């Protein structure tokens, strides 16, 4: 999946003879066919886009996504030729409060905790420091036991199940972020997990939040292509301000995509604090992170017997969920690392 990343202010994007043209100060710096692009990322506030370009992107079904300075997707342009399915959506709404809805609630949360366990276990096995290795493996076992508890929760009342799952998820997160801190280089500041609304000031949390925003847009596009309603979730409660189903499926990919990308990148920075400008990433750092994020999505992983790029697994996962909801599959297999 090729992305066109617009990260520099002062660029003018327009269409000419069915081609995407990018100019700066009147001089052409890039011309490419929309057939070569699947997404356009707008990361700067200073770019100008013509209406002809927007029509061209819609014609070739190239998604255009605008991001905030924190990496959160704030707007997107997609083709009006949607793939919504009335029958599928009716089934999705119907099972939200049924036993099968409770089952899906557990599956999304279980996958997230299993992936946390795998990150800790792999880090523990790769550490030469015996004490650190044993500590990480111990934390991995703890998260594994919490994943088992989530899987073994009983009951058909989705509200009760969701409440218990959220509590266990929080316990797993506390253990996981303790371990995550131990995996980071010793000189990297990490005060614990801080979400975007906590206004973190350290580079690790700012990078995590930025990449989770990129991942959310990736999952959102996949959910929309499946015909499912992005706002009708299971683990996450319905809200007009938050795409609950996108957040559900996103849980499966946080560690495989984002956490691994951040762990790799942070180790490559000589001075991680230098990538920040206040509480924001510098323009060069944003570009570097998006590049690393895209490269991670291009890496092949084997899941459900298929070796595919991570981006393909993200694209397929809502379709697998739709197959389960519509009754064509007997279970839903959430994405997990080995």
Verbal overview:
It is a single chain. With 338 residues, the protein is α/β, with parallel strands linked by helices. The chain has 10 helices and 12 strands. The chain has a 4-stranded mixed sheet with strand order 1-5-7-8. A 4-stranded mixed sheet has the order 4-3-2-6. Strands 9-10 form a two-stranded antiparallel sheet. Strand 11 (300-303) and strand 12 (306-309) form a beta hairpin. Helix 3 packs parallel to helix 8. The two termini are 24 Å apart. The model has no long low-confidence stretch (mean pLDDT 93).
**Ends distance:** 24 Å
Portion in strands: 5-15%
The low-pLDDT segments are none
Overall geometry comes to: globular
The overall strand count is 12
Number of helices: 10
Q: Over the alpha carbons, how many angstroms does the gyration radius reach?
A: 21 Å
In short:
It is globular, with a radius of gyration of 21 Å. It is α/β, with parallel strands linked by helices and 338 residues long. Helix content is 51%, strand content 15%.
């Amino acid at each position: 999946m090729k992305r066109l990343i617009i990260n520099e202010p002062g660029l003018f994007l327009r269409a000419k003879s069915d081609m995407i043209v990018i100019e700066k100060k009147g001089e052409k710096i890039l011309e490419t066919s929309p057939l070569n692009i699947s997404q356009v990322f707008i990361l700067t506030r200073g770019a100008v886009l013509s209406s002809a370009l927007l029509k061209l992107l819609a014609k070739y079904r190239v998604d255009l996504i605008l991001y905030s300075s924190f990496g959160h997707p704030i707007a997107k342009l997609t083709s009006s030729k949607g793939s919504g399915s009335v029958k599928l959506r009716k089934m999705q709404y119907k099972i939200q409060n049924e036993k099968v809805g409770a089952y899906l609630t557990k599956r999304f949360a279980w996958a997230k905790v299993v992936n946390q366990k795998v990150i800790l276990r792999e880090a523990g096995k790769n550490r030469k420091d015996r004490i650190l290795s044993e500590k990480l493996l111990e934390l991995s076992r703890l998260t594994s036991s919490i994943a088992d508890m989530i899987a073994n929760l009983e009951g058909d009342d989705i509200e009760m199940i969701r409440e218990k799952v959220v509590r266990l998820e929080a316990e797993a997160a506390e253990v996981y972020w303790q371990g995550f801190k131990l995996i980071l280089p010793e000189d990297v500041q990490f005060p614990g997990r801080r979400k975007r609304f906590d206004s973190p000031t350290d580079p690790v949390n700012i990078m995590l939040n930025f990449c989770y925003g990129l991942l959310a847009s990736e999952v959102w596009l996949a959910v929309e292509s499946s015909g499912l309603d992005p706002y009708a979730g299971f683990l996450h409660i319905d809200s007009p301000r938050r795409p609950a189903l996108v957040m559900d499926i996103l849980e499966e990919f946080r560690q495989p995509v984002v956490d691994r990308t951040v762990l790799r990148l942070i180790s490559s920075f000589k001075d991680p604090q230098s990538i920040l400008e206040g509480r924001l990433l510098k323009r060069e750092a944003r570009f570097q992170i998006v590049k690393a994020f895209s490269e991670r999505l291009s890496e092949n992983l084997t899941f459900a017997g298929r070796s595919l790029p991570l981006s393909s697994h993200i694209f397929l996962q809502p379709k697998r969920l739709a197959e389960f909801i519509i009754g064509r599959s007997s279970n839903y297999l959430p994405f997990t690392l080995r």
